[in-house]
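Just scan this pair:

***
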Amino acid sequence: MSLMRTQDAKQIPLSQLLSKLGHEPVKETHGELWYLSPLRQEEDASFKVDKSNRLFFDFGLGRGGNVIDLGFALFNTQSVSDVLQRLDEVMGQGHAKTLPLPFKERDRSVESAPRTPANPPSPAPLFEDMTLKPLQNPALLHYLRKRGINTEIARQHVQEMHYRYNGKAYFALAFGNESEGHELRNPYFKGVQGTKDLSLMKKEMAGPENGLLLFEGFMDFLSYLTLNKAKAGSPAIILNGVGMGQRAIERIRELGVKEVDLYLDQDEAGRRLTEQFQTALPGITVRDQSGLYTGCKDLNDYLQKQNARERA
């Protein structure tokens, strides 16, 4: 198979590449898309994509460029041919490997950022010395309790991962997916170890006789179990990102279920996903259950507010 040419690669919309890798914009202003940086951890979006010029700029790193420059950092290489090969692989498949994000947030200054692209960012090291353990870390359990999650229920579905990044030790909640990767989460960090994919729970129960529950993230799944005192008699899909919609549609068809209940976020992305499922699954009853948490961002937000009312 012939390798993608550089001029072809530069025509790839950066938003499409980032979406393939599991990253969606936080906001859009005047033709510019703003993301949480795919190259590092942060809480405020400071990674900008100029849609018309197909350029990016990471204000936290003070560097930017075109799709090739981004590929140097995303794919941990300084070889243009390696970048072209990875771009060809990513843009030609439904789901792809997402690089992990570091914990440590670097200083950023929007005002002082240059307008012209700088040199390509240095290759980002991968997680090292990764170890999965049963969920028992007090800080992680405290984080779950703050989110309203029953920790005994969480222990049945979530582990904790310990690893090193840039020589320093970190840990996070680890929720496994269908490609043996893990969604990682702690109070300061949200990322992926390994391959970005959806998660399927109670796969053995899937079939025409059972419905299926579908959640946007694993915190929503744990919130559902907490609200229902761990009574989830149906198999469940957790998207682990809005970019997994088509992947989920394919799995639903394979599983042969006749009913799907959607527990998606109450935002534009959630509404688009609902329409996508209802349109793409004729013959299957697809119910939007977000009315159960009207006025809340998502199911976990509803759980937290309900807990606050009970304490008042």
